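Our consortium's second objective concerns turning raw sequence data into structural hypotheses that experimental partners can test. To show how far this objective has progressed, the report includes one record in full. It was chosen at random from the queue rather than selected for favorable results. The single chain below, 210 residues long, was entered without modification.
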Amino acid sequence: MKANLDPQSDGIVWAPSLYTLAASPSRAAELRANQPLLDELLQLIITTGEEAGLKFASYPVINITPNDQIGSEEIRMYAQHRVEKLVETMAMSVEAGQSKENQGTNAFLIINGDEIFPLKGGVINVGRNSENQLSIKDPHISRFHAQIRLVKGRYMIFDLDSTGGTFVNGQRVSQCELLPGDVIYLANTSIIFGVEEDRSSSETQEYNPD
């Protein structure tokens, strides 16, 4: 966590809010099924940050990513700032005072914990086929697996009768509104939905467990 702190000129030090656990496919499946362990780990992250005097700009999220290059007994953890990573990768900014009700101009996806995909346009098709706006090289994903659609300023995901199904926060869905921090699973691929926040108003958006 210390290596990924974000000190600001006002003296506030922000802790990372995205934590990715990378493990072998079998171990990743075990971790996903062990919700009590994930809840305990999340609470440990929050407690450790608070004891160190750090602030969380948003509620921390744990993402589990399967990686067949990692041994069965090994688990790797990566900590990232969701907002800063987006700005660094996309070189974009959000105007102060932008409405939170409109996700269309500043929403993004984090693919397998490291790749940023900005959501631009009203319809984004997702699947293995290269014709999709978001093409994912996962042999277990259907050629045309899902569709993310902007509906009245909010993003929704629709399953396109895929073979393996579309899951949001562990629940299989046919369609679902996406909220910041939601974790989408398409076969062995994890996707986090996020919305860039205006840091100028972070004082009122700061996560406070009390």
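The partners drew two points from this record. The chain has two domains: 14-80, 105-197. The two ends are 22 Å apart (CA to CA). Both points have been shared with the crystallography group to help prioritize constructs.
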